[in-house]
Amino acid sequence: MKKIIKQYFNVAVSVDNVVFGFDADGLKVLLISRGSEPFPGSWALPGDLISPEMDLEYSAERVLKQLTGLDQLFMEQIQTFGRVDRHPFGRVFTIAYFALIKVEQYHPQASSWAKDVAWFKVTEIPTLPFDHREILEYARRELKNRIRTQTLVFELLPKYFTLTELQFIHESILEEEFDVRNFRKKTLSSGIIEETGKLQKNVTHRPAKLYRFNASKAKQLDFEGGIL
Amino acid sequence: MKKIIKQYFNVAVSVDNVVFGFDADGLKVLLISRGSEPFPGSWALPGDLISPEMDLEYSAERVLKQLTGLDQLFMEQIQTFGRVDRHPFGRVFTIAYFALIKVEQYHPQASSWAKDVAWFKVTEIPTLPFDHREILEYARRELKNRIRTQTLVFELLPKYFTLTELQFIHESILEEEFDVRNFRKKTLSSGIIEETGKLQKNVTHRPAKLYRFNASKAKQLDFEGGIL
DNA sequence: CAAATATATTGTAAAAAGTACAATAATTAG
DNA sequence: CTAATTATTGTACTTTTTACAATATATTTG
């Protein structure tokens, strides 16, 4: 028993969070500037070693909150990375999580050993330490899959949104373009998006109709997949 | 630094393998009879603590080989489970993997601390220790997803197979039934299954045509999804 | 106020895919 | 030869997907 402890109970586990944010500019990822070893000064995914006393799911939320102040996000596990040499301090397995938020509705603040926090467009990511680049790429692929099989997009939209915005999100995430007419036909026919009667304000062109996601209808229809 | 080691490098990581097997009887799972603490005598997923010196992917294969003799399987990671109290010896995170094989082509042999090894129909699983039941259920859901989005079924079939067998596999895994005519139309139209000109032998009824999976055609067509 | 600019909105026809449904064929066993 | 067993096949209908461009509504500019 002592032997077992010595032999096996000597590794560490961390979580790394890929927080995707969306605004008019497109899809972004939240990174922190590391203020401690290893790789101080480097931009990295907000992640940290986790303490043995906490459940895994809760640890992911807690680490994110400690480093960025973000709380109460809907986080999903994506994959565990366990290459032997991925961390210079020793054997560290890391479990990657991802979350999706509206950039304008949250105000991340660097704290704990995070010296700064900032959004980066997914197309302009700086060099990342550890295997964070690999984790991020995996998360992007996974995001594409899940956006097609879960009703996730509405996490990225304000309560009232235009169909153009809805289409822009899909195009940004999936990195492909859709025909406007077909996109509208398909999304509206899903039955989970409804007109509000309201119109866009303060735009310098024809104002678009505002729609809203009908969550209870979605539940009632047992609607699961993405809307495309 | 010393502090960090003491505070964080004191947990363990294990892998648990969900090996699905298929034969005329349907879908099965490979379990071992545990010959060591904790839960000796209990049937469980073949899994074990992993040593800090090995890459994660490789560990999964190695654990499986040690306990069951199975080697060279195509294994995929599914999910990590990290409830605080999931293991009585201390904090153990476990990373679940799954594999798919033809029952008749492998001959698992219990070794190391596994005292026995046996196939169990997925509908007749005994009580499992740890959170193995939860892991198994997760794996079954995941299998359904992946059978629809990856070209996995052929792992479960002999080189030459009948369309009836192909349909039976789908029905067993997805737990739903398909119309014979529509099933054949759809699978054949995928273009990745080809006639061999051969017929079933030694059957007591009209012999079925034997087909084969055309892997190079699949690659050429960049065929990715399941065939249903 | 007319024209320019910018974005929003809408329909239709053709093709492809999915669905529902049952009779006939080929083999062995008796 | 008959019964039993499983294999094989087609068609009409519905639904979904795809391709494609003209008109509408607002603001800004001259």
Quick recap:
2 copies of one chain form a homodimer. Chain A is α+β, with helices and mostly antiparallel strands and 228 residues long.
Write the layout of secondary structure elements.
Two copies of one chain form a homodimer.
Chain A: H1 2-8, E1 12-23, E2 26-34, E3 43-44, E4 47-49, H2 56-68, E5 76-81, E6 92-102, E7 114-121, H3 132-149, H4 163-174, H5 180-189, E8 193-199, E9 209-213, H6 215-220
The structure holds a DNA duplex (30 and 30 nucleotides).
The beta-strand count of chain A equals: 9
Could you estimate the helical fraction of the residues of chain A in percent? 25-40%
Please state roughly what percent of the residues of chain A sit in beta strands, choosing from under 5%, 5-15%, 15-25%, 25-35%, 35-45% or over 45%: 25-35%
Structural class of chain A: alpha+beta
Q: Note the overall shape of chain A.
A: elongated
State the end-to-end distance of chain A: 54 Å
Q: Tally the helices of chain A: what do you get? A: 6
Greatest interface and its participating residue counts = A-B, 32 and 32 residues
Order of helices and strands of chain A: HEEEEHEEEHHHEEH
Query: What is the arithmetic mean of pLDDT of chain A?
Result: 94
The oligomerization state is homodimer
Which runs of chain A of at least 5 residues are low in confidence (pLDDT < 50)?
none
Based on CA atoms alone, the radius of gyration of chain A comes out at 20 Å
Largest sheet of chain A: 7 strands, mixed
